[in-house]
Amino acid sequence: MTITCGTGPAFLFRRPGPALWTRRVYKARPALPVVLILVSLVCADIASAQTSASPKPSAGAKAQFRVCADPENMPHSNQKEEGFENKIANLVAKELGEPTRYIWWGQRRGFIRNTMNATLEEGRCDVVMGVPEGYDLVSPTKPYYRSTYVFVYPKDKGPQVKSLDDPILKKIKIGVHLLGDDYTNPPPVHELSKRGVVGNLVGFSTFYSADNPPSAIIDAVASGKVGVAIVWGPAAGYFVKQQTVPLAMVPVPSGPGDLPFEFGISMGVKPGNVALKNQLEKVIDMRRAEITKILNDYNVPLVQRKAGLKK
């Protein structure tokens, strides 16, 4: 069962990485407000007008695993339940013995307010998939995977970039997701700017449409429009796998003083819902092999937490 909230694909904002959730994850680094910040968009506060039209679950109805998700954000999720987060959510629901019920809302400003914290019960969900660990608008579980931003370039004749300090990055076109002003761009864009790499960036919008599909940035690498792209791993891996041109994915390392490029990804529940959080963490432990298989099927680059790295 699904409930659709939002104004349609043209108005939905997509996240090319966890940098779009919130700057709250890095409260310990107040000098870096650019790391994770919610993006301000128009048409953000329309929840009550739309969720009020949704049918209210009848009293005594069977418990449901109610998930907040973006209706058009592959490879993460879509209304056809083709995304890896859909597959993982359905796996968790099956383990809990409950049917999955989606509350659809574009991931943009007000996402948590209009879903998990919705005024109307019928528009409210219990779980948000794919939040960064440490995200304090929800109570995050232990991570169910950890990924990273990656360089993407042609395997055989690409620039073989391994670091943001590689001099070749000042000479070739670099595809990046650009989200607007300097305070809402992903971490790699800030680090490139810090290194004086600006004029050769080719920006790709995250306002997806038929003319601007989420695969566009990877398509540009395959076609030679850009020499290399720097993309959030899950989005890169899925579309790299679909290309006929062999492409390499290389993790972007953080140098001294750099912003982080690796993130642990969790499920989020409403603060105070300790019982559900504990249930989810048990499922994550019990079904970790199946979760990892789903991620591998979508070609998500997985990394292990480095020893001594703080959450």
Task: List the SSEs and their pairings.
Layout: E1 2-4, H1 47-51, E2 65-69, E3 72-73, E4 77-78, H2 84-96, E5 100-104, H3 111-114, E6 127-132, E7 139-140, E8 145-154, E9 174-177, H4 187-194, E10 201-204, H5 216-223, E11 228-232, H6 233-241, E12 247-251, E13 262-269, H7 274-286, H8 288-297
Parallel strand pairs: 1-5, 2-5, 2-6, 9-10, 9-11
Antiparallel strand pairs: 3-4, 6-13, 7-13, 8-11, 8-12, 8-13
Helix pairs in contact: 2-8
Task: Tell me what the structure shows.
- 23% of the residues lie in helices and 20% in strands.
- The chain is α/β, with parallel strands linked by helices.
- Strand 3 and strand 4 form a beta hairpin.
- The radius of gyration is 19 Å and the shape is elongated.
- The model is unreliable at 1-14 and 20-59 (pLDDT under 50).
Tell me briefly what this model is.
By secondary structure, the chain is an alpha/beta fold. The protein has eight helices and 13 strands.
Helix content: 10-25%
Q: Give the averaged pLDDT, no decimals.
A: 79
Structure class? alpha/beta
What is the overall number of helices? 8
Q: Give the overall silhouette.
A: elongated
Order of helices and strands: EHEEEHEHEEEEHEHEHEEHH
N-C termini distance: 35 Å
Q: What is the beta-strand fraction?
A: 15-25%
Largest sheet: 11 strands, mixed
Residue windows where pLDDT falls under 50 for at least 5 positions: 1-14, 20-59
Query: What's the total number of strands?
Result: 13
- Our Rg estimate from Cα atoms comes to 19 Å
Quaternary organisation of the protein chains: single chain
